[in-house]
Each structure stands twice: as C-alpha cells, then as structure tokens.
Design brief:
5 helices, about 30% helix, Alpha-Beta Plaits
C-alpha cells in the first residue's frame, strides 16, 4: 500500500432505531496494540451496553492488519459490514466501535446490518481526513530570520511540517515522501533554502499535503 486515507482525530456519531441507540466512536490508530487499548477503554465507558462491535484496519510494519467483531450480535450483522465500509472508503489506521443500547424491540438481521452500517458511515463522514503514506521524517534547524522563508518553501513544495521547536534556533520536523528526499537535500546543498543543519530520521507513516 503506497498511499491511504485516514482520519485526523476522534469523532462520535449516533443513530437511533426503534428505541435502540447505536453510538459510533471512530479513532485514528497507528498499531494493533493501540486499537485493542481503545476497545478496552470504550468497553469501560459503555460498561452497561449490551454490545460494543468493532472494526479496524491498520498498517503496521508495512502489513495491513484487519479485525472485526460482532460482540454477541448475530454473525455478520455488525463487524463485517463496518469493516467493509472502511475498506470501500480506502481508509486505514482507523478503528470504529459501535456501541448498542438495546431498546427492547428486535430489529432483525437486516435492520442490524443497516443500523451498524449507518452509524459507522455517519462517524466517518464527519471525520476530517488526510492522505498518508510511508515516507521519511527530517529534522531541519533554521535561524529565526529564515523561519518564514522555510515555511514558504515547505508550502510551495507540499512538505508537511509536523512540529516546530523553538530554543536558540528553530527546529522543524518535516515529513516527505521518499522520492522527494533527494530534491530537498539538493536544495539545501545548493543554498536554495537557508538552513543551519539537518538530520534524516527513520521511515514512518507521514501525512501527504495536497
């Protein structure tokens, strides 16, 4: 997988059907372990709910890991439809947990599929999305007098600034696609951008700017 879409933060959406309430929590995740911890947290928050159905898809060590669970609902009525939505949307590094509070009226398998799907889709629709890929992180030290010029260079070249630390000198942490690495190194060496020093860090999942 070269590129994928993910969400920026965590979001909540609700669907109500025949007195049953479906609460969808969607999270950005970066590992299977993080997903499992979020699931434990949600189950503690909604400890009195009958079902906490889950679906997640995460890129870990350049391999996609997928998991889904109906958590006691009839087989195939919750986790699988939710995971299918995630995949059809081209999403990764995302966890959706739909909590159901039973309203006393049976919905049938078709009704359950529809409600879990609607809650999942509603939470995804409201989420802010970004494109990510496996890339490289670089620390770049810049004099205060050149900060605005460096910011302009990053914006012009679609380079994502993930962090700026200010001390005696400004240190930018930038994220670039692997095929852009040589371009920025050449621009630094040829003084097309003024920087004091730079350090290439390890590969990681980065945000791709448009």
């Amino acid at each position: 997988m070269n590129e994928f879409i993910t969400i920026m933060n965590n979001y909540v959406a609700e669907v109500t059907e025949k007195k049953s309430k479906f609460i969808a929590n969607v999270f950005h995740i970066e590992s299977k372990e993080e997903a499992e911890e979020k699931i434990k947290e949600i189950k503690k928050v909604y400890y009195d709910a009958r079902h906490n159905c889950i679906a997640y898809r995460v890129l870990e060590n350049e391999t996609i890991i997928e998991r889904q669970s109906d958590d006691g609902e009839p087989s195939g009525t919750a986790g699988a439809p939710m995971l299918n939505i995630i995949k059809k949307q081209g999403l990764c590094n995302i966890l959706v947990i739909v909590t159901r509070y039973f309203g006393g009226i049976l919905l049938g398998t078709g009704g359950l599929v529809r409600c879990y799907s609607d809650a999942c889709m509603k939470s995804i629709e409201i989420a802010e999305k970004v494109k990510q890929c496996i890339g490289i992180e670089i620390n770049v030290e810049v004099d205060y007098s050149n900060i605005e010029n460096f910011k302009y260079y990053c914006k012009k070249n679609q380079i994502f600034i993930s962090e700026i630390n200010y001390s005696d000198i400004a240190t930018f942490t930038i994220q670039i696609q692997e095929d852009k690495k040589e371009n920025i190194i050449n621009d630094i060496n040829e003084k097309k951008i003024e920087v004091k020093n730079f350090e290439i860090l390890s590969k990681k999942i980065i945000t791709v700017t448009e």
